[in-house]
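Structure request: Sel1 repeat family protein, Actinacidiphila glaucinigra.
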Amino acid sequence: MTAGRATHDAKHAARQLLDLGADAAGRRNARERVAAVKAKLVPLARQGDAQAQTLLGAIELELEGNPRGAHPWFEMAAAQNDPAGQRGLGHLYATGLGVPADRDRAVELFTQAAAAGDAYAMYNLASANIQAEGQYLSFDATVTHLRAAANRGIPAAWARLGDLFSADDQDAEALECYVKAAEAGHTGAMNAAACWYRDGTAGQVDLVQATRWFLTMLRYGNGDGIHEIFQFASRMSPEQIRQAARLAGDPAAAESFISVLEGRGPRADT
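Returned structure:
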């Protein structure tokens, strides 16, 4: 095997472990796998490979639960302007994990990584600015970063953007963002969208869409919306309930609700 191939394989194995995240710890021989991957990455990192340094930092932080061990690796990678390394180091300073909390330093690092196109850094930068009540970025710049992160595949960015627009009384824009986050699988945004449609917060009440998103939450393991549906389902026609269930990807659920409303079955939330 060539050195280049070995390097590629070591990094690929590390990314696979990180993709498993917390699940990796519960897998058989997980610790042995982590140790083996680290053993391959350490020589590369010591030779100055920034990606290997960042991967080691991520493994220490996310799999080993050792932020102090992650810090020097992220520091080395950030010194080489590796965006993921800058973002990882920024996360440590933002949260005070393994280092004294330093929001200014975190924002500096997130800014550098965001400028290089790192989507999670864009999200983290905007989030840090929101927490700091606009100390670092203008409203428009915060929106720009969140929208860019969202368009790069981070559902939480759509949800955070919805919150930002909501706080600014831009209700139509907020609902649009909540729906986009919901469509991407963000359960908090599903709940927000459902409540807004139920209450008509951004305009007219739409009980079909409200039911749709409360039902979709159930598909993601969150049953909180079932009780909510029963609070207003009596105002819906059977066909509206069926339409909502189809939109939620669970047509069979409609018949259960209709059966209960017609007094032919027990409520699922009792």
